[in-house]
What does this fold into?
Amino acid sequence: MSSFRPNKRQGAQRRVPVELHIERLSDEGRGIGMHDGKVVFVANALPGETVSASIHLSKSRFAEAVAVEILDAAEQRVEPACVHYGICGGCALQHFHSEAQLAFKEALLHDKLAHHSGGQRYEKLPVISSESYGYRRKARLAVRYVAQKERVLIGFRERQSAKLADIDSCVVLDPKVSRLLPELSSLIASWSCRRHVPQIEVAVGDSLPGQPSHALVFRHLLPFNDDELASLVAFGASHGVDIYLQPKGPASVHKLWPRDTPDRLYYRLPEFELEFAFHPLDFTQVNAEVNQRMVARALALLEPRSDEKVLDLFCGLGNFTLALARLSGHVTGVEGGDAMVERAQENAARNDIHNTTFLCADLSRPPAEHAWLQQGFDKVLLDPPRSGALEVLPAVIAAGPERIVYVSCNPATLARDTEFLVQHGYRLQAAGAMDMFPHTGHVEAMALFVRNEGKRA
It folds into this structure.
């Protein structure tokens, strides 16, 4: 049995396949087996399976391979929904049953926390999940003209390759964007500058009355001529997609069509009666369904009250901040870039919220000198990048919050930071995984820390 279509061009360069028994999964979801006394990480392999695998990288202590034939399949193996799976590198786990993916991600999180929580018992929260296809609202699609094919390829790289996969659809992308891929390919192929359009940034919002829901940002290294600009406008008009151009860095992005309209998309958090405006290049969560459930869980864990001051670190455009403001006395949101601080202020005004303050600060460095930390906070929410929040945690503890909710996109740094918090007067009370990126090895998580009685900085 095999539901995997390996890259034939790569396969011709590989060794004769070897038979491997897969014992477990690595953190990113690859199978782990042994060959010649060496650990082998095997793509497209599941625990308990026997596979025929081609090794494409061999080091002194480990090797990397791809399973090209499944000799004895696991019960959790399913047929991938995508016809390009196995060639395109955009997804890694479509061969793994969705429920089994959730169990794997949940176990990975709790295993890491078990090693760093000081043996504390805590509540294991249910995994937050969503529909596993058509969920992706943000993407950076590579673009490449291939002369041999006389075609423009748009999408993601091939597995173990810098080459672009030849795809005409993507089952995890927003369905409208997926349907547009062939027409985008034909459009760009018709241009004289087709070799100089390296990427398209995709941004999708909610479908709200009278508001745009889809935007495409075209990165171009040479100016478009008048005919090319006209074709872009026609494409946007016929498909109901806002068109942006990016001739240089992010600051050069500007709207081509429709003219004289705000450069914004929108999404809602209905439970909190909030509507957010964002620029297509702003950071927003890729999975709207998970985001709504994530915000609701964060507030349920933090338990903000109308007489409390709350601190929201790495606040972005206010995704958590404004929901917190609905229930808190005052919320201070801190973000590392001026543009996102301005966007958060814009969204507070948009929602007629007046009990927030937004500040810009570099949270990758110890922020002891910042005056806003001296006022003390009753509750703190953190949503740091993959590198975690270790630099800012001493200041968080000094602020003396009763509760801390930590939203993480990297279980490893969450576990590391858990150890720090446990060592400094907090206990891990609850934690759970979130599947923001189905069919990939990415694991998001949320944890609640509560100050031990009698412990105050």
User: Anything to note?
Assistant: The CA atoms of residues 10 and 434 lie 34 Å apart. The first strand starts at residue 18 and ends at 21. The domain at 8-77 is CATH 2.40.50.140 (OB fold (Dihydrolipoamide Acetyltransferase, E2P)).
